[in-house]
Specification:
Elements: H1 3-27, H2 30-33, E1 37-44, E2 55-57, H3 59-66, H4 69-72, E3 73-83, E4 90-101, E5 106-118, E6 124-130, H5 133-140
Parallel strand pairs: 1-6
Antiparallel strand pairs: 1-2, 3-4, 4-5, 5-6
Length: 157
């Protein structure tokens, strides 16, 4: 295999890992989802609101963090676009989520950008997730809650 073919195969595997992440997350299949990650993987949320950790490390912590997601959001991820990078193990993707916040019945529509690094086995080692916490807060806040209340959310472990 040439270096160019090797890079193309690594890029395809890395993009597949991210696409599988989205598919399994939307399906609520946390036990399968966590297998996409290296044992010491990091999931990072630079804009995490109060109640959501900014950094989750390791498979056990990842499962604990995502365990309530299937009861919190019913979503599908659409309009996935990958942006080519020089490093074939680095994936940058834009996508949208469309769905519902299950506790409130409110729409949950989000635009995301993810920066994902994978290892030689196409396992995710670092997932940097840029999403708007205000969208999640609004979707998870019941209509009868006054606007001056504490707007923290909990949907992670």
């Amino acid at each position: 295999m040439t270096a160019k073919e090797d890079d193309a195969a690594r890029r395809a595997a890395a993009q597949h890992a991210l696409a599988e992440h989205l598919r399994l997350t939307a399906a609520g299949r946390v036990d399968e989802w966590v297998e996409l990650f290296a044992p010491d993987a990091v999931l990072e949320f630079p804009y995490a609101p109060a109640g959501v950790p900014q950094r989750v490390t390791g498979r056990d912590a990842l499962v604990a963090h995502m365990s309530n997601f299937p009861e919190t959001f019913d979503v599908e991820f659409v309009d996935l676009v990958f942006h080519d990078t020089v490093d074939p193990s680095l994936v940058i993707a834009e996508f949208r989520s469309k769905g519902t916040a299950l506790p409130t019945g409110k729409p949950y529509e989000q635009t995301c950008i993810s920066v994902v690094r994978t290892d030689d086995d196409a396992r995710i080692t670092h997932y940097l997730d840029y999403w708007n916490p205000l969208v999640a807060i609004e979707a998870l806040t019941p209509n009868d809650v006054p606007s001056d209340s504490d707007l923290s959310v909990t949907f992670g472990g």
